[in-house]
Write a structure and sequence with these properties.
Structural class: alpha/beta
Helix content: 25-40%
Strand content: 5-15%
Distance between the termini: 30 Å
Strand order of the largest sheet: 1-2-3-4-5-6-7-8
Length: 338
């Protein structure tokens, strides 16, 4: 953009030669002033206002990913609270009937899954993967499946059975699968990429059988880049408010950043419980944005099962607002918005 400038100064009569010199100087000075003002104005007009004082991550437009381990038969009101959330704010709800789908469908679960799906929420079914049967603290031989068997082959069979059962019972209302109890390393020697490869294959199988399905892995902590394409979304933090804000003295539970950078923030999810006040919730939401988590869930519940409830109003309403860029649902532009 170009602008024209003119400055009129009172002056005595001067001969033509000196007049030309003065006019040139006036025009040059005037245009320089105008250009400076225009550049300043252009920069100001491009500024999004509140973001002048916001870190880049604060511009991230998030969705909530809710572990909804809530029994709709005994607590239909909480499911109603979830399904009637602000449209577009809850992106994912994880349904967990009994650490899996159980053998038989339940009408109450079918009803809330159908309602959530109708309201634009992607309901995905919980599947325990038992760290794929690998050794963990306290279980050097690995966890046992429901049938009492151990090892990768037994867990692979149970996982596939649970995936099939979820879809058999709840059909097209189900939007995908949530794989829980995922190891945080690529694989054991002598197969250093075994675990990542198995989860990648599981995700591919779900998508092949159910086109458009969403897959989520939950190691609950930072994982190596071998997991980047193992599923659509990785839960790289699940823990307490104290651990997420680094106030915890337990170093193994603190938030740890990834050693690699995901292409899309929607590949990353953080889940934080025990966030007791709205002020703490806002702090966590701001942190999750700066840490580039496209999905997030924050709850005040600090019980042994913090996912059996939703936060109370107005905490829950405020959390939905905070998921927008700058915590403002009217701001729909800027880096990171969808």
């Amino acid at each position: 953009m170009y602008g024209y400038c003119a400055i009129y100064l009172p002056m005595p009569i001067i001969d033509r030669k000196h007049m030309q010199t003065i006019l040139v100087a006036v025009v040059v000075i005037g245009c320089a002033v105008t250009s400076s003002l225009w550049l300043s104005g252009a920069l100001t007009s491009q500024s999004p206002g509140p973001s002048d004082h916001q870190p880049l991550g604060q511009q991230l437009d998030q969705q909530l990913a809710v572990p909804s381990y809530i029994d709709p038969a005994t607590d239909p009101g909480t499911w109603a609270q979830l399904t009637t959330s602000t449209p577009g704010r809850v992106g994912i709800a994880v349904a967990n009937v009994g650490n899996g789908p159980t053998a038989h469908g339940m009408s109450a679960w079918a009803s809330v899954i159908r309602q959530a799906h109708a309201n634009g929420i992607k309901v995905i079914g919980y599947v325990d993967t038992g760290y794929l049967g690998g050794p963990i603290a306290g279980h050097p031989e690995g966890l046992a499946t429901r049938s009492g068997l151990t090892g990768l082959r037994a867990w692979r069979a149970q996982i596939q059975s649970d995936v099939d059962t979820w879809y058999q019972l709840y059909g097209s209302d189900l939007a995908g699968i949530f794989f829980d109890q995922v190891p945080d390393h690529c694989g054991p020697a002598p197969s250093p990429a075994l675990y990542a490869d198995v989860y990648s294959a599981l995700s591919d199988e779900v998508k092949l059988a159910h086109p458009g399905a969403l897959t989520v892995l939950n190691p609950g902590t930072a994982v190596p880049s071998c997991f980047e394409h193992a599923a659509d979304v990785l839960v790289t933090f699940e823990g307490s408010y104290a651990a997420y804000t680094s106030a915890s003295t337990q170093s193994d539970s603190r938030y740890r950043p990834l050693s690699w950078s995901p292409v899309d923030p929607q590949e990353i999810c953080h889940i934080v419980y025990g966030t007791s006040s709205e002020e703490e919730m806002q702090q966590v939401m701001a942190l999750s944005k700066s840490r580039r988590a496209g999905y997030v869930y924050v709850t005040d519940d600090a019980s042994s099962n913090p996912y059996r409830t939703l936060p109370p109003e107005p905490y829950w309403a405020n959390e939905q607002v905070q998921s927008f860029p700058y915590g403002n649902p009217e701001v729909r532009s800027g880096p990171g918005s969808r």
